[in-house]
Write a structure and sequence with these properties.
The protein is mostly helical. Helix content is 74%, strand content 0%. It has 6 helices and no strands. InterPro entries: DUF4064. Keywords: Membrane, Transmembrane, Transmembrane helix. Pfam families: DUF4064.
């Protein structure tokens, strides 16, 4: 079965996440008032805006790898995409909405889409 839709949704979600992560790293201190309104983490990680950006970049890179490999093992990589999508909502919050929704959709499709029977 072709897993092209999962691949495309995952790639778009991961790329949007990478852009958001680098945006947070580059402009974090200038937009700190905005960032602090949707950051759920407190302490050392949540206080440093650049750290949140790097966490976002790493998670997006991992989602990119999972998206590229979803055709080989859809259920395994789909679970990883869902976990990244949900977890990052709690790490960076609202900036992750577009990326998170796309990654969760791609992951759920990878997990639950059954292959068509071959005749």
């Amino acid at each position: 079965m072709s897993r092209t839709l999962e691949l495309v949704l995952g790639l778009i979600g991961a790329i949007v996440g990478l852009v958001a992560g680098f945006w947070i790293v580059g402009y974090g201190e200038d937009i700190s008032d905005y960032i602090q309104t949707f950051t759920y983490l407190n302490g050392a990680l949540g206080d440093e805006i650049a750290n949140l950006g790097w966490v976002t970049v790493v998670a997006s890179a991992l989602a990119l790898i999972a998206s590229l490999l979803i055709k080989k093992s859809p259920r395994g990589w789909g679970v990883l995409l869902v976990l990244i999508g949900i977890l990052m909502f709690f790490v960076v919050g609202q900036i992750w909405i577009v990326s998170g929704i796309l990654l969760i959709l791609a992951g759920l499709m990878g997990i639950f889409r059954v292959p068509s029977p071959k005749y």
